[in-house]
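Hi W., the guanosine-5'-monophosphate complex you wanted:
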Amino acid sequence: MKKGKKLYEGKAKIIYATNDKNLVIQYFKDDATAFNNQKKSTIEGKGVLNNRISEHILSNLSQIGIKNHLVTRLNMREQVIKLVEIIPIEFIVRNIATGSITKRLGIEDGTVLKEPLIEYCLKDDKLGDPLIAEEHILAFDWASKKEIEKVKKMILRINDFMIGMFRGVGIKLIDFKLEFGRLKVNGKDEVILADEISPDTCRLWDSITDKKLDKDRFRKNLGDLIPAYTEVAKRLGILHEQSNVSAVNVTKLSSVKRK
Ligand code: 5GP
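Structure:
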């Protein structure tokens, strides 16, 4: 497969064309941003860990029938993915209230929700990804009713699976963000899971200590982001137990072969 020109550069990833018009290469950068780009940094090794963790989660989801854009991981920072038309909505899934919802609604941090809550945000950095209602999605034709219903079913299945997967390794899945895209299959539009699922897009707390193992370490200046992401990767069985927790070692992950 030949890597072509850069098609798009986002905050944490770059998309390149390939010689197959249906496939693109997704490159994971080390850049970290928060608060709508107001806080920025580069954290050496983050892209490598997110590439591995997202590959692991998306391949597992594929095995339980959740269609997604991942084709294969190419190397330490790149994946081949299916080119989709991204639905311009961030689907936020919450199991425990923390982050923006606690401030917005005055809910106590750590409140366990009776049922998973799905929120919709318009994917628009200039507007700060505002919270929207399902009615807005329909009114402005960002997705059809049928697509939303299909996505909601997929989200609940993904959430169930991920809660179990993380619980098995001593991690609580607090909340996460998903994106979906449209793909033409035999002339018909199909909605599949897209983007990444990683500690950049999930809140993950240690089951016993509630230690944050996700991007909140960057957002809240808690430090030790790479050791936290490495811990997640190790617990998921992606990294060898003996791997030392350091950015330098993370850059050596390229030598760890795919399972
Ligand atoms: P909150 O709305 O509390 O800030 O975020 C809820 C969840 O969605 C968190 O797990 C957070 O990481 C994820 N999330 C929301 N918006 C974004 C975003 O623009 N980028 C990333 N990487 N994650 C997001």
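Residues 90, 92, 99-101, 129, 175-177, 200-203, 215 surround guanosine-5'-monophosphate (CB under 6 Å).

W.
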